[in-house]
Design a protein that fits this description.
By secondary structure, the protein is mostly beta strands. The chain has no helices and five strands.
Length: 69
């Protein structure tokens, strides 16, 4: 996932997973990282959609619209 989509709370990392028009804060385990991309080694399932924009204004349960480009 884009490194910019990953947030940190103390020692835990999380992303916002999009489900049914809202986001769910989801704890993840992060493996290799560079300035642009990160490998998620745990916490996500194949097919999960991760929010990648407006991360700073999201919170658990925020309503979102998915824009594919």
């Amino acid at each position: 996932v884009p490194s910019s989509a990953i947030q940190r709370d103390g020692q835990e990392y999380y992303v916002y997973v999009v489900k049914n028009g809202s986001v769910a804060r989801t704890r993840v385990l992060v493996g290799l990282q560079n300035s642009t991309d990160s490998v998620i080694t745990g916490g996500l399932s194949v097919g999960d959609e991760v929010a990648t924009s407006n991360i700073g204004v999201l919170s658990n349960g925020s309503a979102v619209s998915v824009v594919k480009g």
